[in-house]
Amino acid sequence: MNYSELEAGILQLITGATEDSVRAFGEQTMTRLVRPALLHGAAEDELTEEARAALTTAGANVLTISATELHDELATIYDGILVDDDLDTGVLTVISALAHWKSYLAQNRRGELYELAIRSIEDVDHQVSADLDDILATPEMAAEYERMRRLLAPGTK
C-alpha cells in the first residue's frame, strides 16, 4: 500500500465508522499524540513557562477538557511560542493534535479526526522512516494502521 492509498483508506474508515467508534478512535489517538515523551525534545527557549504549563495541562486533561477550555489553553500556548519556525517536532505534533481535537469537540467534524489520524501516521513515520511506496512495510506502521482499523471498523480483522 502506498501513502495515497493509506490516506484514502483512513478517510474511508472515518467516514464509515459509527459515532461511538469515531469518538473512541479520537480519544485513543489523542492520548497517543499528547504523550509526555513527545515534549521531552523541547528546548527551554521554545516556549514560555506559561505555554509549557498550558501544554502540560491540555495534554493531561485531553479526555475531559471542553472545547472552550482547550481553546483558552491553545491561546496561551500560541502566545508563548518563542521561535519563528523551529519548534521541536514533538511539540508541533502535540499542538497540532490539540488544535484538531478542539475543533472536533466544538464542531463534531470527522475531518478533524482524519487529520489526527494523519498526525499519528506522521508520528510513526518520524520514528521509523517508512517507505512511502510501501507504507505498511514496517511493523510499527502496520500496527498503527491496524489500530485504526480495529477502532474504526469493529469486527474487521
The mean pLDDT is 92
- Our estimate of the beta-strand percent is under 5%
Kindly report how far apart the N and C termini lie: 17 Å
Fraction in helix: 55-70%
Radius of gyration: 16 Å
Biggest β-sheet strands, sense, barrel: none
Order of helices and strands: HHHHHHH
Q: What is the β-strand count?
A: 0
Can you walk me through this structure?
With 157 residues, the protein is mostly helical. The protein is 68% helix and 0% strand. It has 7 helices and no strands. The chain starts with a helix and ends in a 5-residue tail after the last helix. The mean pLDDT is 92.
Describe, in short, the structure shown.
The chain has helices at about 5-15, 20-35, 50-60, 65-80, 90-105, 110-130, 140-150. It is mainly α and about 160 residues long. It is globular.
Keywords:
single chain; mainly alpha; 7 helices
Helix-strand blueprint:
Elements: H1 3-16, H2 19-33, H3 49-60, H4 67-79, H5 89-107, H6 110-128, H7 139-152
Helix pairs in contact: 1-6, 1-7, 2-6, 3-4, 4-5, 5-6, 6-7
